[in-house]
Structures are given as C-alpha cells and as structure tokens.
Amino acid sequence: MMLYLGADHAGFHQKEALKRFLTTRKIEFADLGTDSDAPVDYPLIVEKVIEAMDLKADQAIILCGSGQGVAIAANKFEGIRAAVCWDEKVAKETREDNDSNVLALPSRHIQDEQAIAIAQIWLTTEFTNEERHTRRINEITKLERRER
Amino acid sequence: MMLYLGADHAGFHQKEALKRFLTTRKIEFADLGTDSDAPVDYPLIVEKVIEAMDLKADQAIILCGSGQGVAIAANKFEGIRAAVCWDEKVAKETREDNDSNVLALPSRHIQDEQAIAIAQIWLTTEFTNEERHTRRINEITKLERRER
C-alpha cells in the first residue's frame, strides 16, 4: 500500500507538516507536489495523484484551501471516494461508512496539528464492511458507469 | 432557478428545518425526499436530485449524516460541483472560488441553526468569475470528459 500526497499552493505548508508526521511514524508516502507556495491549479495536482494510485490498495491525502476543489476533482475519477474532513469524528465516520480512499484537507480552515490528528484517525480506521454501506458504495459505482 | 432538496434518513429532520427557513424567506424549492427517518440509500436520493437539475440555473442542497456520501455521489455527475460545508466561511469560499452548485450538509455534525446559516450564505454568495478560478473549473470539466 502506498500513500500519495498532493497539494496546491494553499495546502503546500500543511503537506510538509504531514510529511514530518508520517516520517516520524515510519509511514511510507510519495509526494507528488506542489513543492512551493507559488500558485498551481489543483485539478492538475489531483490528476497526477489519482492516476498514480492503485485503487485496490493505495490511499491519498490531498490538500487545498477549503478542501473542496481537490475533493470535487478527485471524485470525478471512477473508484475514488474523496472525503473533506475538518475533524477527527467525520474522518472516522467516512472511513467506516463510505470506505473513503482519499482524504481531502481544508488547509486554510484547520491548524497543522488538527490536520495531523485527522490524518492519523483516517489512516487507522477500517471500513465496517456492513452490507448497507457496501450496497450504497455499489450504487455510487453504478452512477460512475451510467451512460453520459 | 429552482432549488432542489434531498436527504437520506440521517438528514431528513434537518431538511425539514431548512424547508421552514426557505418558506419564511419565500425561497422556492422542490423537495425530492426522503420523507421520514426510515433508512434509505443516499445515492438513489442524490440521483433523483441531480437528474432533476437544469445545470445552467438550478442549485441543490443535499444532506446525510457526514455530508460525504451525498457529496461523493453528486460529484460523479458531469457539471456538478458539490461542496461539504460545516461552517459559513467555507460555504462562502466554495461559492466564490469553486462556483459550487450543490451544497452538502453533514447533518449529524451541525445543529439545524448552523445548517440554516450555512445555506443562507451559500445561497447568497456569487462566484467571483476570476480567470484563475474559471480555468480550474474548466480543468475539472476536462477530467469529467476524459476517456474511461
């Protein structure tokens, strides 16, 4: 399992804080940018991250100012369930109920310590695998595959 | 412009509170369910709401326990930019920057008064129309239309 990281300029500094936490915990990750606070377009970063992922095993954490732009872009991809999390409770819930495989962090709305606490809960919480949740995830998959 | 509403069982009561607010403000809406707190699958409610929308003019507010399930499902549709909002600041930002056309509310994480305050800001904030934001939205559209 690989953990991919991606952020736009607004999320760059918080991504660096996350990397320090992951390194301390010996959690392997791959950072796909950005590498400064010079403006970049979040959909291009998200595209790099999602295309790198093996959906059977990998996870990703993506960051932008409000978390919304990166999450919207990521959810356009088949097999991606990206959740915008602002506290630990919602992070736990979206792993348990939605089996979210991408965590989107709203960097301008939460402190780095809060982002790390959210990531820690999200990375260590398992999907419940309950039938009602699996059924709803399968219904999302049907929405992805419908005719356009 | 029509405002569509949809919620699963976890968002049902908060949707009713929103309807009372909208009625007081004489804001027209169409409620596409659910109509009780009996369990329903959020992707089916979201599908009804999004398929009812005229993307050139309409907006929607969708509710579930964490806001994540309805937002993930909605963002699978072309032309939809659904934002999960937990406070007024992020609601304003996602209208201004992402031109979000669907508001997803985390009903089990916010009080009804907070949901109403978020909806009020979201409904009255305009997209900035700045070139950098428009460019990023167009990049999301490209992600939606890529080969699968």
Give the CA-based shape of chain A.
globular
Q: Characterize the main sheet of chain A.
A: 5 strands, parallel
User: What is the total domain count of chain A?
Assistant: 1
The structure class of chain A reads alpha/beta
The end-to-end distance of chain A, rounded to whole angstroms, is: 33 Å
CATH topology of chain A: Ribose 5-phosphate Isomerase B, Chain: A
Counted beta strands of chain A: 5
Helix percentage of chain A:
40-55%
Corresponding CATH superfamily of chain A: Sugar-phosphate isomerase, RpiB/LacA/LacB
Average pLDDT over all residues of chain A:
97
Number of helices of chain A: 6
Question: What's this, in brief?
Answer:
Two copies of one chain form a homodimer. Chain A is 48% helix and 15% strand. With 148 residues, chain A is an alpha/beta fold.
Describe, in plain words, how this protein is organized in 3D.
Two copies of one chain form a homodimer. The first copy, chain A, has 148 residues and is α/β, with parallel strands linked by helices. Chain A has a single domain, classed as Ribose 5-phosphate Isomerase B, Chain: A. Chain A contains six helices and five strands. Chain A has helices spanning 12-24, 42-52, 68-75, 88-98, 112-124, 131-145, and strands spanning 3-7, 29-31, 59-64, 82-84, 102-106. Chain A has a five-stranded parallel β-sheet with strand order 2-1-3-5-4, sandwiched between helices. In chain A, helix 2 crosses helix 3 and helix 4 packs parallel to helix 5. Chain A starts with a strand and ends with a helix. The mean pLDDT of chain A is 97. At the A-B interface, helix 2, helix 3, strand 4, helix 4 and helix 6 of A face helix 2, helix 3, strand 4, helix 4 and helix 6 of B.
